[in-house]
Write a structure and sequence with these properties.
InterPro entries: LCMT1, Ppm1/Ppm2/Tcmp, SAM-dependent_MTases_sf. The chain has 349 residues and is an alpha/beta fold. The chain is built from 14 helices and nine strands. It binds S-adenosylmethionine.
Length: 349
C-alpha cells in the first residue's frame, strides 16, 4: 500500500465535498435531476456558491455518460432475466443507489455496496439515518442497522462499508464482504452480474494498488461459470500537457497528488485498465466525445438555455481530459454476445 500520509488522506477525503457541491450546483441549475444530493451533502457544503457554467456543463456530461452506461447495464441484466450487484468504490456522497431505487429498474438490483474511508462512511451513514427521504428507499427500518462504531450500514439491498482501498483487499474488503445475513451467505454472490464503479477515485491511488483491487474482484468472480464482471471508471487522463501541469499544481497546493493518472497518456491507453486483467471487452471515450456523439440534440439544446457559456473552446479542452472507460469479463462464451452490446448508443434528435 502506498501513501498513507494522514494529511494527504484528509485532502483526498475532502475531494468528496467538491464532487457533491458540483452535483448540487448542477441539480439546482436544472442540468441534472437529483432529488437526493441535498440530503447527503458534507457539512458546510450547502454554503458554497453555485459552480460556474463550465463546471455545470462538465458535471452534466459526466453524469449523463455514466448514467447511460449504468442504465444499460441494468437493462441488459433485465433482458437476461437476472438481478445484478453494483459495488461503488470511493462512493463518497454519491446518490446513485437512491436514484436507481426510486426508478423503474429498482427490482433489478440485488445488492448495492458502497465503500469509502471510515471517516466518510460515518458521515454518510449518519446522513442516511437522519433523512426520511433516503431511509424509506432502504426498505423496512427494522432491517436497517448501523455497526462498527457507526462506520457501517447494512440494509437488505444497500450496504455502506469502511475500507482503505489501497490496502490488500484480502485483509480489508474480504472480511467486510464475508457476510451480512443471519444465514452466513456472502454479501456478494459470484453468480450475479456485478458492476464495479470507480467514479473519480483511482486517480488518487497508485496503479499497483488499483490493479490489486481489480485483480481481487476478478478472482472473486472467476470461479462461477455464469460469472459476469463489469467495470466502469470515470477519471482524468493525459495530464502531461500544459492543462495537466496547471491541474497538478493546483491540486498539489491542496496536498492532493494523482499517481493513478500517470500511466494513461492517451484515451487509447485507458482500456488496458481492464484488458490486462483478462476482460472480454473494454472501451474508453472522452467527455468531449460523449457530449458530441452520445447526448441527444434536444438535451444539448435544453442545457444550452440554462446559463450563458462563453468559453466553448475551454469547455472542449477540459472535457478532453476526462474519460469514461468500461469493460466486461464474461466467463461463459455463450453469454459474450449479449454483454458485447454494453456501450454507448449513437445520440438521437
Ligand atoms: C472525488 S470523490 C468521488 C466521490 C464519488 N465517487 C462521486 O463521483 O461523486 C473521491 C472519493 O474517493 C474516496 N477515496 C479515495 N481514495 C480512497 C481510498 N484509498 N480508500 C477509500 N476511499 C477512497 C474519497 O474519500 C472520496 O470520497
Amino acid at each position: 500500500m502506498h501513501n498513507a500520509n494522514p494529511d494527504g488522506d484528509e485532502a483526498i477525503r475532502q475531494t468528496n465535498s467538491d464532487a457533491a457541491v458540483a452535483r448540487l450546483s448542477a441539480a439546482q441549475k436544472g442540468y441534472i435531476s437529483d432529488p437526493f444530493v441535498r440530503f447527503l451533502l458534507p457539512r458546510g457544503a450547502h454554503l458554497q456558491p453555485p459552480r460556474p457554467p463550465l463546471i455545470n456543463v462538465g458535471t452534466y456530461v459526466r453524469s449523463e455518460g455514466i448514467d447511460q452506461l449504468v442504465n444499460q447495464w441494468l437493462e441488459l441484466c433485465e433482458r437476461d432475466g437476472k438481478q445484478c450487484q453494483i459495488v461503488s468504490l470511493g462512493a463518497g456522497s454519491d446518490t446513485r443507489f437512491w436514484r436507481i431505487a426510486a426508478g423503474a429498474r429498482a427490482n433489478v438490483l440485488a445488492k448495492y455496496v458502497e465503500v469509502d474511508f471510515a471517516e466518510n462512511t460515518t458521515k454518510k451513514a449518519m446522513a442516511i439515518r437522519k433523512s426520511k427521504e433516503l431511509g424509506v428507499l432502504l426498505g423496512n427500518q427494522d432491517d436497517v442497522s448501523l455497526s462498527n462504531g457507526g462506520t457501517t450500514l447494512h440494509s437488505p439491498v444497500y450496504h455502506l462499508l469502511p475500507a482503505d482501498l489501497r490496502r490488500n483487499p484480502s485483509e480489508s474488503l474480504a472480511p467486510l464482504l464475508a457476510s451480512s445475513s443471519s444465514d452466513g451467505s456472502p454479501m456478494l454472490s459470484n453468480a450475479l452480474p456485478t458492476l464495479l464503479l470507480f467514479e473519480c477515485v483511482l486517480a488518487y491511488m497508485h496503479p499497483e494498488d488499483s490493479d490489486a483491487l481489480i485483480a481481487w474482484f476478478v478472482e472473486y468472480f472467476s470461479t462461477e461459470q455464469s460469472g459476469v464482471l463489469g467495470g466502469l471508471v470515470y477519471e482524468m487522463f493525459g495530464l502531461q500537457d500544459a492543462f495537466g501541469k496547471v491541474m497538478h499544481t493546483n491540486l498539489k497546493a491542496r496536498n492532493v497528488s494523482l499517481p493513478g493518472v500517470e500511466p494513461y497518456a492517451s484515451v487509447a491507453s485507458l482500456p488496458t485498465r481492464f484488458t490486462r486483467h483478462g476482460f472480454t471487452t473494454s472501451h474508453a471515450i472522452t467527455l468531449r466525445d460523449i457530449r458530441r456523439s452520445c447526448v441527444n440534440q434536444s438535451e444539448l439544446e435544453r442545457i444550452s438555455h440554462l446559463e450563458l457559456l462563453d468559453e466553448v473552446e475551454e469547455l472542449d479542452l477540459v472535457l478532453e481530459h476526462y474519460a469514461v472507460t468500461w469493460g466486461v469479463k464474461v466467463n461463459c462464451v455463450d453469454a459474450q454476445a449479449l454483454w458485447r452490446e454494453w456501450g454507448f448508443k449513437p445520440s438521437r434528435n
